[in-house]
Amino acid sequence: MPSTQQPPVGIDLGTTFSAVSYLDNSRRPNLVINSEGDRVTPSVVLFDETSVVIGKEALKAAALEPDRVASHVKRDIGSPHYSRTILGEQVPPEVIQSLILEKLKRDTEEVLGPISEVVITVPAYFNEPRRKATQDAGRLAGLDVLDVINEPTAAAIAYGYQHGFLDEDGKTARQERVLVYDLGGGTFDVTLMELDGKNYNTVATAGDVYLGGIDWDKRIVDYVAEVFQENHRGVDPRQNPAGLQRLLRDAEDAKRTLTARQQATINYEYAGEGVRVVITREQFESLTADLLERTLFTTRKVLKDAGIGWTDVTRLLLVGGSSRMPMVQRALHDASGIKPDRSAAEDEAVAQGAAIYAGLLCSTREGEPASMQIKNVNSHSLGVLAQDPGTLRPKNSVIIKSNTVLPAVQGRRFKTSKAAQKQISVKVIEGGDAAGNNASPIGRCVIDNLPQDLPAGTVVEVFFKYAANGRLQVKARVPSINREVAMTIQRDSGLTEAKFQVWREKLLNDEGPLESQSTALRKSRGA
């Protein structure tokens, strides 16, 4: 291991639970035990009267003070605000995520001493704004985010190192095609990877950032709530925030029971009334069959995009806590004919893989030969949205197709429409159909310092680059005068640098957390 002041650290910033791993002197990943003595930390934040509480105690408070609790924030990362107000205030998801990261940082420092450099994992299907927002959350927490790595890639790395088919140098004895099925608490990814020698190459990936274990929980919630309504004059406990939180907690417990047993019993009380509901595993699987089918549809899409069939897959790796459900394992076995491999610890493999990747980055930075080569692909196409001159309708001109090996650079030529034009602005999107429907807006790329007296029709070349981690970089040049020109991205979402600085100052000062965050929000509105 290179002689750095801290060991390599990887963080799995999960929707429901988060974990931290580090490499020891033997280059083996070890999970950090948090201050509560647990291997994972609930990704839940309680905004108390005088402090912010993160983790297990915040989770306990969710049923009693739901208006003060933020959970499943990862689903909103990249959006302007968390999905609901906290104590009447709108808070950017990056700020809430940064509080979770600060807690993970403190707990890690109790074990390792001061740390700053980390690798953070993201779902493979995260678009570019979500990746940027995750890095911003790390910066707000006072971390130097060396890189972000896709969660299935991290899981495959950990699996390869710890579970049997890589030698001490990280080489495979033969080429492996590993399909990683990652069903977490709030997001879902499928990634096909080829492992050959020291090369870890992602072939194709797809997913759903709004599909995870919480959606299975909600089906039980709806089932119990309907029984409650039938027995108690139409009263719906889901309409009360505290009642809903208690029901969600009971539903999650029942889901876990049904993983081990054929039936679960829920005794639920609300507004002085109660019901006893018995739900069988068969009923549960029927209630959630469409959710499982969504994952299978995505899995088939990945195989199709890769141009292979199940017979070409050598290993089927399950990660994410929700992949424990028997219905998942049975359906995948029936579809593939392959026995799913759960030998990687579902809740730990992603953090461990991130730590291994952090070690790779630190080693190569200090001049050591790379122990592995990692190649990813982009999960969304990158395009420019403009008006079709023939139909006068929006048209998505794809620049970099999805599942292109990263890093990838593609240029596009634009022309000035009039003489002495000072600015060119193009709208950049990810995904979407030919007309740009259902696309994720990145923002406007603006060239605002064009040289004076350019004639109409002057060509401006714009180069769009996806970095290896899926982040977007843009450059522009005027070839007729062989000059590069400045290009900025005016983003449609996420924190501006000015708002970032406001929040960073407030999170660092000595004011009470609630007061400081409310103050920061008011100031950020004018930033």
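(the above was protein one; protein two follows)
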Amino acid sequence: MALKSDFLIALTQLAAERHLPKEEVLKAIEAALVSAFKKDSYGDGVNIAVKLNPNTGEIRAHTLKTVVEVVEDNKTEIRLSDALNIRKDVALGQEMEMESLSHQASRIAAQTAKQVVLQRLREAEREMVYEEFAKRVDDIISGVVGQSEIGRGLVVELDRAEAILPPEEQIPTERYRRGQRLKVYAMEVNRSPRGPEIIVSRRHSQLLRRLFELEVPEVYNGIVEIRSIAREAGSRSKVAVIALQDGVDPIGSCIGMRGNRIQNIVNELQGEKIDVVRWDRDLKRFISNALSPAEVVQVVADEDDHGAVVVVPERQLSLAIGKEGQNARLAAKLTGWRLDIKSMAEWEAERAQIKLEAQAAAEAQAKAKEEAEKLAAEQAVAEAEENALEEEIRKLEEEEAAEQTETVAVPVLEEVLEEILAQEEAAQEEEQPEEAVALQDELDAFTLEDVMVDEAVDEEEEEELPFEEMGDEIWEVPQLTPDAGKIRFAEDILDFDRGGREGRSRRGRGKRRAKARRR
């Protein structure tokens, strides 16, 4: 079955009007024919493939079946053995073209095919528009101001689509009128049921960069590079540029002869002021350039705080700050540093104050150091005294411990001596003869009074005894033992004490015997 020539020409014209490739149109027609075949007699359960010859307009329709081991649906599946009988080069899972279909489309099928063709063409057109504008994100798009939609913003009509300019992306000082041609910055492109949704902006800082690339060939070719941009849309902007090629003036290239290049950009932005400054690797010079047209005397940068103090002459203070602080604000955005602008008089006063504070701090530090040293010395003296006192206490404790040891040792020694004496006396009593024991018993029978009487009598007798009667005994000197005066041990003491007692006992017994004889 062949299509009529006028119908094929109409489809070709439709594809040309929609700016679609011929392949997309053919795919849409084939999909429409498939729906027409299913609509008439074959039903939805059958897989149908349609091939359209673009040269002759001939249509070939076939049913498709999948090769499987076990057939579950005869409309869409065929057994592997049966498929091998038809064609030898088939495999499991492969689709086979079965019988050819020939059918004269009815009015309803033709209407369905037409709707499918139009739907497929619209989808293809939306996809192509999306792909086209998706490539132009972060670029300038030229369009015409359309109507304003409540809640969405301003519609900008492009060649094949419509873009939305939201209220927050519009410049407050600009007035837009229908049919006005604008250059906008494409921020993002999104898919939607109504087609690609393109969001554009007029206040984005990159719009200024793209305008410079359009108007300044050196910027577009990369000879002059834009390093940073600070913009307050509709009011004023600052652009920092640097030349990457020797002998090129970056500021002069951007301004152009008699300012025609920069003037075109200003006109496109409806009178927005633009300052072009030179970017410098030296931060202080870059800050000075950023604050132009004001003159800068000195820049003191603090890298830790990421801020800088800028000193300007007294008459240049208002110019450096700008109207409502705009110049200083833009310079801070351009450099990325926090700027504090001061006049010379204020700076000198602050320096004097800082100097006084530094002196006061130095004096306070010196005083604190002196007090710390004094306190350390006092602590050292106190520690020495405390150590001496602890040493004296330790010595006293050692002496007391030694005295206690001696005090404890003396009673122990006495007990030991008494025990030794008792043992020796017991041993002597065992060695004495019976006569000595009897005599000892007799002596023990005497009372203390008898002893005292005997001693008194002895004294009287001794006094009465004349000198002549004493005889030669008076001249006898008791013989000392060789070891006399060398008592060293407890045994010596006991022997000495025992000898004395024995002598006294013998003298007492002799006196008592003489008294007994006299009686």
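Reviewer note on protein two: DSSP finds 15 helices and 15 strands in the chain.
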